[in-house]
């Protein structure tokens, strides 16, 4: 697996559902290629065969992450899914935390996986708030990182559900805890500059990269280029400075 170094500037995570999409985002500057099936939920797992094709084609040359799917928070369900996903050869395994409370048995399961060298990222959902109190426990479990996303893609984007001050607190507290931190959730190009000012480790996109901004549609080359350009061009933009347009 790739050695993942802490980023100097926020990275661009692009979610893909096929090898063709993975090749597209790899060619257009995605820093993290995230494997998932958007038709199967917020964190729908990509079919094992397609996941294997992507790992074979791009693994070792690009950082790959993959979700275990929208699964119940039960240790006996989560553990084999983590094992199978990690064994596929991805660099990061993502688990959705579908609930408001931390479960000690599930935390212990994640800690065991982390102790075995799996880079586990827990995805928290904005519908439950910023959940800042969870971060120390997740860090103590030895997890690699956290991500703040949205569960219901039809009821608003990340910045509709949480204010920028709440997102800033999430990023700052994650960093204080030593957790690799990402922001996602129906992000649009207009969100890029405000979120860059918060300095997350990465920002995740799917819908903004698709035809007609529909997350279950196929990725669109022009949309991918536009998002990457907006990140790269505005990477040093501060909150009190005007953004720079992509051309």
From TrEMBL:
Pfam families: 4HFCP_synth
Highest taxon in the source lineage: Bacteria
GO molecular function: lyase activity
Active site positions: 36, 94
Residue ranges of the TM segments: none
EC supergroup of this enzyme: lyase
Catalytically driven reaction(s): 2 D-glyceraldehyde 3-phosphate = 4-(hydroxymethyl)-2-furancarboxaldehyde phosphate + phosphate + 2 H2O
E.C. numbers: 4.2.3.153
Record has Transport as a keyword: no
UniProt keywords, alphabetically: Lyase, Schiff base
Protein purpose: Catalyzes the formation of 4-(hydroxymethyl)-2-furancarboxaldehyde phosphate (4-HFC-P) from two molecules of glyceraldehyde-3-P (GA-3-P).
Protein name as it appears in the record: (5-formylfuran-3-yl)methyl phosphate synthase
Organism: Methylohalomonas lacus
